[in-house]
TrEMBL record:
InterPro entries per UniProt: DUF6325
Protein's recorded name: DUF1269 domain-containing family protein
Organism of derivation: Rhodococcus erythropolis (strain PR4 / NBRC 100887)
Top-level taxon: Bacteria
């Protein structure tokens, strides 16, 4: 089975930039991750929320940053996110803000999965742990430090 037949874990993140435009911070690192084969961008949408509460998707080239050309991400908007996804992000945004919503595939694990499947193993399930779920799990594994016998 080749990497083209497999998908790595699919993740998403929505990042709000207060004010009417994103900042360039992070976008160069995002390109570096893509160029090095660590991730593949499946969708990158820019969502704005107007003062009246209306939410819309705009092309990356809408934003003119002094030190970074976001227009290079215009082709990354695949439409994978549906109207409900965009509305959910919009509910979280402050009026006058913009969010970058990134759906990406983690590629670094694919060689491991491929080696396992070549040897007869199969992926039976996969998923995502939210930070809240991870914190709860860690809390449940922490030793009880209260004194029981005083």
């Amino acid at each position: 089975m080749s990497n083209q037949d497999q998908f790595g874990p699919i993740e998403y993140v929505a990042v709000e930039f207060p004010g009417s435009a994103p900042t360039s911070a992070g976008f160069e690192q995002l390109l570096a991750l893509v160029d090095s084969g660590v991730i593949r961008i499946l969708d990158l949408e820019f969502v704005t929320k107007a003062a009246d509460g209306s939410v819309s998707v705009v092309p990356a080239s809408t934003f003119e940053l002094v030190d970074f050309d976001l227009a290079q991400f215009d082709g990354a908007a695949s439409g994978l996110l549906d109207v409900g996804d965009i509305a959910a992000v919009g509910e979280e945004l402050a009026a006058g803000s913009v969010a970058a919503v990134l759906v990406y595939e983690e590629l670094a694990i694919l060689p491991v999965i491929e080696a396992w499947t070549r040897s007869g193993a199969k992926v039976v399930t996969e998923g995502h742990l939210s930070l809240d779920e991870l914190a709860a799990a860690l809390d449940n594994t922490a030793p009880d430090t209260t004194e029981k016998d005083a």
